[in-house]
Amino acid sequence: MRALALFLLGLLLAAQQSTSPTPPEQPIPYSHKKHLAMGLACKNCHTSPDPGETMGIPATSVCMGCHAKIRTDSPAIQKLAKYHQDKAEVPWVRVYQIPTYVFFSHKAHLETGAKCETCHGPVATREALSKETDISMGGCMNCHRQNKASNDCTFCHEPK
Ligand code: HEC
Ligand code: HEC
Ligand code: HEC
Ligand code: HEC
Ligand code: HEC
Question: Which of 28, 29, 53, 152 is least surrounded by CB atoms within 10 angstroms?
Fold first, then answer.
């Protein structure tokens, strides 16, 4: 009984480490929920330039396409406009990030039929994003196991 309880506690702690219910505080309170409700699509802002490894975070110019005129009275939009004017990047706090020694390609995964939501949760319903799915090594390997994709070390890591 005690061993089982400790085992379950271990699982719980492991799960807590690889996901996080609390969104990080962002420099600008950008809401996916509000903007996707306007009919924007992911690809309007996340373009995945060749070779398709990254999805990228949009430049301020994408935002200013609308916000040069929309809600210019808002302090958050004034902050955005200041970054834009200074030609500075918004210091967004990254939510999903893996170390550079891991191979990962968005393009390759989207070609397997995976959806954004599979790995990032229901983004379009979120006011603020938190790391709600597990993209640690264990999380990657679970999905690879389920889909009969390789879990050889060298599939995701440089050979030693
Ligand atoms: C109007 C532009 C815009 C649209 C449309 C948009 N995003 Fe974003 N996205 C952003 C901005 C800005 C950030 C950085 C701030 C944040 O994390 O909320 C971001 C961050 C993210 C992140 C977190 C990246 C990281 O590791 O920090 C994910 C995942 C994401 N977006 C997925 C999506 C998906 C999926 C869609 C479509 C359902 C979408 N986005 C549509 C602008 C957009
Ligand atoms: C198979 C899982 C998976 C799928 C499917 C997926 N992502 Fe990601 N996404 C990740 C991982 C892993 C990272 C972290 C990549 C890194 O740090 O190099 C990431 C990072 C991001 C980022 C941060 C910027 C970057 O490129 O590192 C954005 C934005 C993002 N994803 C948006 C999307 C959108 C939009 C879609 C759907 C078109 C999508 N993702 C589909 C796993 C996935
Ligand atoms: C297609 C036009 C469009 C684009 C592109 C766009 N926005 Fe917006 N944004 C709006 C509209 C319209 C509102 C007002 C929504 C509301 O009040 O419900 C808004 C509201 C906001 C707000 C809330 C302002 C406040 O104080 O209430 C923030 C912050 C914001 N946008 C940031 C961004 C950022 C950052 C980007 C770029 C990643 C961006 N927007 C891209 C149209 C856009
Ligand atoms: C939604 C399920 C899923 C998740 C989550 C997932 N993968 Fe995959 N991955 C696949 C499938 C399916 C393939 C295709 C295997 C094939 O073609 O034999 C694949 C292929 C790959 C490839 C080879 C594709 C290429 O670039 O040529 C790498 C590397 C990889 N995954 C790394 C990762 C890493 C790292 C993570 C976690 C950050 C991850 N995967 C998460 C399902 C997933
Ligand atoms: C499906 C992709 C995938 C496969 C297969 C894989 N890894 Fe990983 N590995 C990752 C990811 C993603 C991380 C980064 C985890 C994180 O950010 O917490 C990682 C991290 C690591 C780390 C660093 C851990 C740390 O805490 O610093 C080591 C060591 C490692 N992997 C070894 C291995 C070995 C050995 C194998 C073969 C048995 C293997 N990996 C197979 C995806 C993979």
Answer: 152
To the question of pTM greater than 0.85 for the whole model, the response is yes
According to the model, what pLDDT value does residue 16 have?
A: 45
Three-class SS state of 85: helix
Cβ neighbours around 30 below 10 Å, total: 19
Q: How far apart are CA 62 and CA 19, in angstroms?
A: 29
List, chain by chain if needed, residues with CB within 6 Å of any ligand 2 atom: 42, 46, 54-57, 96-98, 104, 106, 109-110, 114, 116, 118-120, 135
Task: Band the pLDDT of 79: cuts 50, 70, 90.
Answer: very high
Question: What residues does 157 pair with on adjacent strands?
Answer: 102
Residue 79 Cα to chain centre, angstroms? 23
* Interval between CA 65 and ligand 2 midpoint (Å): 24
Sequence-ordered alpha helix ranges (H) in the chain: 2-18, 32-37, 42-45, 60-67, 75-85, 106-111, 116-120, 137-146, 153-156
Q: How far is the CA of 38 from the centre of ligand 2 (A)?
A: 22
Using CA atoms, how far residue 83 sits from 27, 44, 64, 65, in Å, is 11, 20, 11, 14
